[in-house]
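Researcher: Here's a chain I'd like modeled. Treat it as a single chain, no partners, no ligands.
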Amino acid sequence: MRSVGKWVLILLPLAVIAGGIWLLLHVDNQAQQLLHPTSSLYSGYSELPKQVQGLNLEPFAIHGEGDHMIRACLASVHDSSIFGSPRQQVVQERIKDTDLSGLEAADYVLVSADWDHGIRSALPMAEQLATAGLRCVLWEPRGTDQARSYCTRGILECKDVSYLIDELERRSGRKNLIVIGVGRAFGAELMLHAASNEPRLRGIVAIDVPAPLNKVLQRRSLPIWQRELIGWRMKNITGLEPFDFAAVKSVFKLPRERPVLLICSNKETPESESEDTYALYSQLHPEQRQLYILRRKEDPADTDHREIHYTQQGGTRSVKHNVRADLLNDSEAILPAILRWINNVAPGLKEVPVPGQQRINLSGTLQHPASPLESAPGA
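Model: Modeled as a single isolated chain. Structure tokens:
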């Protein structure tokens, strides 16, 4: 018995230590997954393909934030292409009877999708946008080459946008360019963060904007103590809390005249749900916001929109919102809808707004106040 007790006294502390090490490694692994949103879709490919059907690709490189070299390219319609790529053919058929003469007002469109393969992942959108004659700019947001060893969901990555616009002004020899940002997922967050600080980014299209990381953790049904440990590890790596990774904080800071198109493709995941897009929509100025969602079977055939009653939860408080969403028949209608939106808003983007000026009225108070939920860290 004494021998058994002796071994218990020896093995018990070792088991506790081993369990603690396993827990720390598990928490670190969970945090690293959130901070490294990698995609296997483009694994093994170079960042910039040598040739793309229906497109001219013009590579260039500039020095960005912290003097880091940014690899980028301009994408436009291939002059010798008659029919274009299959994606372009779909868009051509959808827009053949639509007047898109207003697109001429847009000088460039910045296109962003994934963090780890920026150019590759943005090419499908660029192919379709270029169909109507838009000049697209794609770049590597410091994921593939590990120039930043973790992803901040656009908070830090968005700083390179200003350097890209500087280069576009230099190339065109013009100031006051009309530059539109189009982003999906990570790219959507990046564009919203960039627009809150860069007045030269004149309009934003955001597709399937991810949820704040604290909500992502909640939806994974993890115990509270485990979420707290993962949040602690993330802060230890980045200096940011999970609730800091939230596009809604930048949406609230957008100038009220900045037009924003939100699109929800109905792909419900823990990282992005419909309610995340509704939360962003509720913070935008009514005159400059539009939301597209896909039609469902229960939507009447004779209606072109859906009224959504959405309750935004925040701790012990909640706020009710009415959301008006325009309907798209299918996912193939998303890019033609983006083209029509840019066609409508680009001609009106003539003057560069002064950051913050439009947000103050004569009494010195904010004209677009925060929702009571947004003052709470967990909102």
